[in-house]
Write a structure and sequence with these properties.
The protein has about 80 residues and is of the alpha+beta class. The chain is built from 2 helices and 5 strands. The chain binds zinc ion (ZN).
Length: about 80
């Protein structure tokens, strides 16, 4: 996975599965955009998919969460290249 060295990187671990992941985030016109994980503490609506005490949830965990699937459908769990 290639990550722009100028981009801040979050390396986990995921609060749900405990595994480390490679992700990053950028600030866009829409606010913070994360890749590889979800910040479930921010004001972006992801907290409704978090269990108590979770702050960061990786994509693989989020995409199998029944609450997430109910809204967004089933996502591929294949790796996304974060750029
Ligand atoms: Zn996880």
């Amino acid at each position: 996975m290639k990550i722009d060295s100028n981009t801040p990187v979050e390396n986990g671990p995921c609060d749900r599965c405990g595994f480390k992941f490679n992700g990053n985030y950028t600030i866009s016109d829409f606010g913070q955009v994360t890749c590889g994980y979800y910040d479930v503490t921010g004001p972006y609506g992801w907290s409704m998919y978090a269990d108590e005490g979770e702050k960061i949830v990786c994509e693989d965990c989020m995409w199998v969460d029944p609450r997430y699937i109910a809204v967004y459908g089933i996502m591929s769990t294949s790796y996304i290249i974060c750029k």
